[in-house]
Amino acid sequence: MNWKSLALISTSLAALSFSATAALAVPAPPVMGTIELGATQWFEDWSYGGSDTGNTNWVSLTGAGRVNIPYSSRINVQLDFFGDASLDGGFHNYSSDGTNVGNTGGAVHFNYRDPSQGLIGFFGAIGRVQDYSWSAPAFMGGFEAQYFCDNWTFGAQAGYMDADGDYEFLWNGGFVRGFATYYASPRFKLTGGLGYIAGDSGVSFPGGTDTDSATAWNWTAEGRYWFGRSVPIAGFIRYEGRQQETHYSKETPQLTTNQVYIGFSWMFGGEDFKQTDRNGASTDIMSFDNFRLISD
């Protein structure tokens, strides 16, 4: 074998190697996200047993934003911002402040995603939650995963949550939640979910802590329609319910909430829900309203 033949073979091998590397290189998806604005009608009932019951309702303004920032073709960072504020200023429950219920905060997600298979990652969120005349800082974090199957997406989260709020808010809790999304068409999707929370309610004092257990179930159902690529606006309606119990030694009061959300999302990046969910800002967090507890 002469030098000319060796050089030709080497050049050919290098070209094949470069072509294979180029074929395997997958470009990172573009930055994608949503900005969401809407209103929520709340219905809330509480019961301490017997005739000691009550109910109220109010309207809140709701806003949220999510953006997915690809680090590479598979590694992603997603940032979330959210807020909810009651518009009710009336008298309720021995408070002249009305139903002053709401929360604000932000979250960050890190995940590895294959758009043809699914994703796996972890997240953390921090914010502040308001319950009538009480408020407290709150935190949650955990792991999340999604599985993509034709026109279905299945997802799950499990994590830890904690707030500094005595009897009014959940302490030292854990949660699991799951959801399923069906893409009836590229621009119309339906989502349903179910979650369970268990933790503590109580108060710290010099020399000790008085704690009781607290549990809750929550459930969601949502429909979204994307009006068109030239008008990247999606309308949505979402129902969310929750039943929470605090387990005292002699009673188990219950707090039941039902919310109906109506609003619009401005979509940036992508052409339809399936593309944006599997390449963009497709993860979320549980509402910080789930920190609220019923207390005696």
Describe this structure in words.
The protein is mostly beta strands and 296 residues long. It is built from two helices and twelve strands. It has a single domain, classed as Porin (Beta Barrel).
Give the total of domains: 1
SSE order:
HEEEEEEEEEEEEH
At the first level of CATH, the class is: Mainly Beta
Strand order of the largest sheet: 1-2-3-4-5-6-7-8-9-10-11-12
Number of beta strands: 12
Q: Assign the CATH superfamily.
A: monomeric porin ompg
Largest sheet: 12 strands, antiparallel, barrel
Tally of helical segments:
2
In short:
By secondary structure, the protein is mostly beta strands. The protein has helices at residues 3-24, 273-279; strands at 32-47, 53-70, 75-86, 101-114, 118-131, 134-149, 152-163, 171-185, 188-205, 208-226, 233-247, 254-268. A hairpin with a 6-residue loop joins strand 11 and strand 12.
Keyphrases for this structure?
296 residues; mainly beta; Porin; twelve-stranded antiparallel barrel; 2 helices; 12 strands; 10% helix; disordered N terminus
SSE arrangement:
Elements: H1 3-24, E1 32-47, E2 53-70, E3 75-86, E4 101-114, E5 118-131, E6 134-149, E7 152-163, E8 171-185, E9 188-205, E10 208-226, E11 233-247, E12 254-268, H2 273-279
Antiparallel strand pairs: 1-2, 1-12, 2-3, 3-4, 4-5, 5-6, 6-7, 7-8, 8-9, 9-10, 10-11, 11-12
